[in-house]
Amino acid sequence: MRFLLLLAALPLLSAELRVMTFNVRYPNPSDGPDIWDNRRELLVETIRESALDVLGTQELFYLQGQYIAEKLPEYAWFGLSRRGNKEDEHMGVFYKKSRLRVEDSGNFWLSETPQVPGSISWNMSLPRMVTWAVFADLQTQRRFTYYNTHFAHRGQQDEPARIESAKLIAARIGLASPFILTGDFNAPPTSEAYRILTATLTDAKSAAAATSGPEGTFHGFKGTVGPARIDWILFRAPQWKVKRVDALTKNRAGRYPSDHLPVLAVFDTGTEPEFDLLVKGGTVIDPKNRINAIRDVAITGKTIAAVAENIPREKAKRVVDASDLYVVPGLIDMHTHVYTGSNGLVLAGGDSSVPADMHNFRAGVTTVLDAGSSGWKNFPDFRDRLIRSAGTRILAFLNIAGGGMGPANE
Length: 410
Description:
six-stranded mixed sheet, seven-stranded mixed sheet, 14% helix
């Protein structure tokens, strides 16, 4: 048996989440002075300086993803190409390994057959897709869902495809929350695709307390952006706030890391929930309140604020998964006798001894201190036969007498 002792709440940490969408421009050999080899170091530097937790890329080729991961080993990345392999453009997702863990991930295609790799619908010229993940935040112990995408690019000709792609994403995300969508949508905020998605999602830029950089995000390596903001970060998380959104214009002597500006959103996910700590899914043993059942335990400060079934995770700053654990007050019996003697027929100390697990759990006791039932001669038997097999944690003082408190023949 394993136990979780409710002694105090855990320390709480701030919860800033830094998310970027970045069309990195594929390694086109016809890009002249802006070919990949001439800008890759600047691109890595831009990512490093942004101190990202999550990065959604578009137009990423496998060799580019591997280069970024090699230069920034604190990040891992995943995602198939739009062809369903390692060839062509990826919606590669990078994440900081010390902050996030991938709980689940996958890909689907923006088509009438989303599970078919490389599938194309709605008269698009190329496959378009979404790479997604469910992340566990190792800092807050909470989860969020993340999508990254790149919509069809051909002006008015692809407007119906962008509308259908937005409808498909909106249908698939359902009511997921917290949720983040990043991408190059090849459409401005005045578009129908934007209207469809923002019917249930919020544009991080419109919600931001502060913004910087130009409105437009595509500049074709020239540094002078057009009027259209086609790279968006959308989200749904009622308790989150957007501290700032920046369209980054970093360049070196007029050379840019890509033909798009990267867009960075800084979220504050730490708005005050009702509880400091939620211990979820453990078997609660509380004799005083006559509870012996699977319950959630919510703590505020150093006080147990609620014990109930299925307390929502979002109500707490920190969540501990106590599945398959017993959750008890953590009482310690400081003076008891639990050694039954080496012959197993009598209790050392006579009527003063009890089997370790007989009454403890239902009384909220998880630790006992045996006061001299055994001595140095018979302690190995005590240890091997009782201490190691008991559900109760047993600590022992050894008796000065070699046989402890047992009969003389012991």
